[in-house]
Amino acid sequence: MGVFLALLAAATYGAGDFFGGLSTKRDSVFTVVPISGLFGLATALAAVPLLSPHAPSRLDLELGALIGAIGGAAIAFLYRGLSVGPMSVVAPITAVIAAIVPVAFGVIVGGERPSIFVMLGIVLALGAVALVSSSSDRDVSGQPEPRRSGILDAFASGVGFGLLFVLLSQTSKGVWPLVAARVVSVALVGAVALATRRFSMPSRGSLPTIAASGFFDMIGNVLYIVSLRYTLLSVAAVVTSLYPASTVMLARLVLAERLGVPQLTFAGKVDVEGGVARVQRVTDTGFDTVEGPLPAVVSVVEKINEPRYPSFKGIMAAKKKPVTTLSLADLGIAADEVGVAGAWSTVTEFAARPPKAAGTIVKDEGDGGVKLAEFLVAGKFI
Q1: E strand or H helix at 84, and its extent?
Q2: Within a domain: 356
Q3: Residue 362 falls within a domain, yes or no?
Q4: Which of the residues 36, 225, 297, 307 could staple to 213 if both were Cys, CB 3.0 to 4.6 A apart?
Q5: Spatial contact of 34 and 199, defined as CB atoms under 8 Å apart
């Protein structure tokens, strides 16, 4: 029963990480983590009457607060790693580290003595976590720098999750520690986001994925803590750490993510030379220079474009250029592989950008500096 619940926890943890990583590709970590935490908190409160109808103990609340502080940092590191690195590399690294910490604690500190068959299963499970996605000795971009993207975040996140697994095993194995943990993590990350002014409302259409990340992450926590009632910490933690399998599966099915394919994201500048694409990646803290071999998939930000307007001479010259028309048969492409029939996505709605609102004019009548300062304060610029 305990192993089965841990497997379910792994599946839901992986789904939560997928939706969390997907959300942070659109919005800042300091936007996704607090909002997803609120949805997770609502999920935990809904589970209280079913699994913890009694009042919480002081120890559960204290451990929950500590779990919240560590867990909030771990989730922030994980989501940042998933946003700057490939999901199918960051998630397995996090899981391996997260599995090693509780196994060491259970055997060395907790005095757990699993049978030889259980120990063999733990070793095989650790290997499965490491091999749940196969990658070459080079990164998805084929270069050392992209390979490091998100790796340190994955390591820090793995240590945090490992400590979280250990601390949860020391509670009464109810839901109240999860409630306390989520309150603390949301408060801490939210406070940092507001203090650094890095919180913003989520972009249009991203709220469902943020909500899904919080929901699935909390369901995984609940399933894991219940599994501890039936099996050893070293067993439950390792089985739960198989969660990258569902993250990788969703990444491959939904995002068509493949290991070995160059992906250069958040590019503000792109240079191509000698079969290598080099991009300047825009991050929360500055710029990273990343390169990878061609062909490569490059996603860009709005700073990539420098508008160029054609001259009259160029327009007239373009009209004289011959235009060659090729049919699908000329290209050797079947009709059902292109167009609407072969599309992987469908545009369901399109809306024009609303007209730009009129600006504010500040007339200097001897108090222009004061009015300007008041305007900047009202807009929270200063």
Answers
A1: helix 58-84
A2: no
A3: no
A4: 36
A5: yes
Angle at the Cα of 37 from the Cα atoms of 206 and 80, rounded to 5 degrees: 65
Cβ-contact 36, 214 below 8 angstroms: yes
- Cα–Cα separations (whole angstroms), residue 367 to 364, 370, 379, 380, 382: 6, 5, 19, 20, 18
In this prediction, residue 219 has a pLDDT band, given cuts at 50, 70 and 90, of very high
Pairing of strands 263-273, 297-300: parallel
Nearest by Cα to 360 from 381, 332, 345: 381
Kindly state whether residue 142 falls inside one of the protein's structural domains. yes
Mean of per-residue pLDDT scores for the chain: 79
Per-residue model confidence (pLDDT) at position 215: 92
**pLDDT interval class at 134 (50, 70, 90):** very low
Give a yes or no: residue 370 inside a domain: no
pLDDT of 143 over the 70 cut: no
Q: Name the range with the highest mean pLDDT among 105-114, 188-197, 208-217.
A: 208-217
Strand partners, 293: 276
User: Does residue 273 sit in helix, strand or coil?
Assistant: strand
Residue whose tokens read 């990646």:
281
Instruction: Provide the domain limits for residue 36.
Output: 2-254
According to the model, what pLDDT value does residue 261 have?
67
Tally of structural domains, the chain: 1
Angle at 87 between CA 81 and CA 88, to 5 degrees: 130
Q: Which distant-in-sequence residues (6+ apart) come within 8 Å of 282 by Cβ?
A: 266, 267, 268, 301, 303
Q: How far apart are CA 186 and CA 192, in angstroms?
A: 10
**CA distance from start to end of the chain:** 56
